[in-house]
Amino acid sequence: MHLLNTRYRAFVPAVTLMALLGFSTGAAASSCVSINGTQQVISYGPLTGTTTSPLFSGSEFNPGDLVNLSWTLSSVSLAPSLTLNWGDGMSDSLNGSTISHSANSSTLNTLVSITSSAPGPGTYTFSVGCQLALSTVSAVTPGTGVANDVLTINGTGFFGASQVFFGDTPATPTIISSTQMSVTVPAGSGIVPLKLVNAQGVETPAGFNFQYLIPPLILDSAAVPPAAVGEPYIHALSASGGVGPYSYSATGLPSSGLSMNPQGVITGTPSSAGNLDIEVTVTDSQSAVDTRSFSLQINASAPALAFTSVPPANVRVGSAPYIVTTNSDQSARLSLSVDSGSQSVCTIQGQAVNFVGAGSCVIRAMLAAQGSLAEESVQQQVQVEQAATPSLHGVPGLSPWGLAALASALVAVMGLRRQRRHTA
């Protein structure tokens, strides 16, 4: 029995008294839990024959809880006759010094009070304790399953249950009512006993076991990635369920240049193109097996990545865009870009390279790594000149001395024409 002592004055108004004790006037608390205040001694005035004085709210108790009261009386020569009225309709005469009451309704949902049949002064000191009703289990459904399944547990006295243990592994239940709870199965194996632990740490064996079932052994059926002739290949298969460790074996790989180890990893360098039909078997430690067929496509060796477009000659700023092409048909892996140091010289949109400044434009083509295929990259370089500046007066390549000579000749010609007109 776990006693948590609280003392209080018999004639303090209900709300004030419950505030002193830390009791709530709202919804019922978990069984016995709220009776945990520090000990208090409260003095009160003379008793009267008609006063009913509230002691505490019965909402702290649940069916089967054992409420324990003890009291002393001082400063009086004759103890008045006192009656303790429980919220469940029961009453007890306080002629002695202790009493126990087993709650027998859904909650003691009215105030517990004392009625005095005779006046008299004095100081009563009450101590209250509560012993949780022990939980019992009548059914566990289902009794077998795997981790993360949800069990329903039926029984009695579940108000104070705070944990369900699967062997030594705890799980926090959801209390549905005083007679039913649900709990999610934690990870575990084998057959384990169930037990309940209430809010005060009292353990109650449930009298039921839970049996962990072994999930079926399943080999992952995801498609294996393709391989390429002459390219190193590696791919790991996986399985789930059963009881580890697993061991793998395969047929259909001999003479292909590929092999699979007992851990399910396919490695090697394919020697010829084609389609391999592989049958893989996984076995667990309990001799359970699962077998599945896979198709492994081995592609012919792909040519090294290269540009198929040729950069234009005599490229100047503002020249027509250069359309870049490569010999790769793997568009998902292929990307085109310009070197970070060339971004003031050229830009690229899709396959079109635009020339925006003078300098060296470095264009990159890259195939990203995928499965057993390694990354590849190549680059082209284009020298970009400034845009051409038109010559003076539209005469290309004429020097200043040439311009002066041309001007003198024009003056001479004009003078000769005027002289001929004058002579005529």
Q: Care to describe what's here?
A:
With 424 residues, the protein is mainly beta. The chain has helices at residues 14-21, 400-423, and strands spanning 52-57, 66-74, 82-85, 91-93, 98-102, 111-116, 123-131, 136-141, 144-145, 150-156, 161-166, 169-171, 174-177, 180-184, 191-198, 203-212, 218-219, 227-228, 233-236, 239-240, 247-251, 258-260, 265-268, 274-283, 289-299, 322-323, 334-338, 346-349, 352-355, 359-367, 376-384. A hairpin with a 4-residue loop joins β22 and β23 (265-268). The chain is elongated, with a radius of gyration of 48 Å. Mean pLDDT is 74; it is low at 1-52, 75-79 and 106-110. InterPro entries: Cadherin-like_sf, Ig-like_fold, Ig_E-set, IPT_dom, IPTL_CTERM. Pfam families: IPTL-CTERM, TIG. It comes from Ottowia thiooxydans. This is IPT/TIG domain-containing protein.
Task: Give the arrangement of secondary structure elements.
Layout: H1 14-21, E1 52-57, E2 66-74, E3 82-85, E4 91-93, E5 98-102, E6 111-116, E7 123-131, E8 136-141, E9 144-145, E10 150-156, E11 161-166, E12 169-171, E13 174-177, E14 180-184, E15 191-198, E16 203-212, E17 218-219, E18 227-228, E19 233-236, E20 239-240, E21 247-251, E22 258-260, E23 265-268, E24 274-283, E25 289-299, E26 322-323, E27 334-338, E28 346-349, E29 352-355, E30 359-367, E31 376-384, H2 400-423
Parallel strand pairs: 9-16, 18-25
Antiparallel strand pairs: 1-6, 2-5, 2-7, 3-4, 3-6, 8-10, 10-14, 11-12, 11-15, 13-14, 15-16, 17-20, 19-23, 21-24, 22-23, 24-25, 26-29, 27-30, 28-29, 30-31
